[in-house]
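Hi R.,

Here's the chain you asked about this morning:
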Amino acid sequence: MGRFSKTTIVLSMLLIAACGSEPPGLYIDAGADGDSDTDSDGDSDSDSDSDTDSDTDSDTDSDTDSDTDSDTDSDECDTTEDTWPSNEITAGGYNWGGFIGVNVYDIQYAGTNSWHGLSLGLYDLGVAAFNLSGTIQYADCDTCVLLGLDCFGYDMENCAQLFLGTAGIIDVTAVNATQPWNDDIVFEGTDLFLEEVTVDWGDYTSTFVVDGETYCVNLWSVDSPVEDWN
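And the predicted structure, written out as tokens:
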């Protein structure tokens, strides 16, 4: 359930590698030494010693080095943050009708009135490493990372761009699974890969932007007390 009714700020990202193969070169030696030395004793000694030794040594060494290194990995990022630069972290825990969750908002100020925000919605509480791979919908994710760029006001409905985390790891090392507002939450996000989306805030359904941008965060570290949002 990737739904935030409070200050909704979210971000994420993952990384890339490509390798090529270099075939060995070919070496061709046709060396056919045809020494016909006929010595017919006329004594023409024609010794035509044609020694054709065609040793063409064409050494075509085709070594075409096809190492094209196309680097077509789909996880290329238009923008990459080595470490998410935090200015302010807010975390809140709640129990809404038996559903317990934690939302974390980590913002950096982009200007006088605007901000960028990276947010985590954690709806399957526990000390564990959560893999974002396979996340395609903000409305029903259990571990949701959302990034908002150039946002105004107090929620993510007023952001110029939104990005949904679709790859990477959220490694939670401390959280209270039953009453999260009584303790701190500690986690690291690594190799986060986010893809541009739009969100219908009526039902939280997200849609990937055609030819949209991508955003990566290599490391996001959070250690924060959790407020009581009940």
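The chain is about 0% helix and 40% strand.

Let me know if you need anything else.
M.
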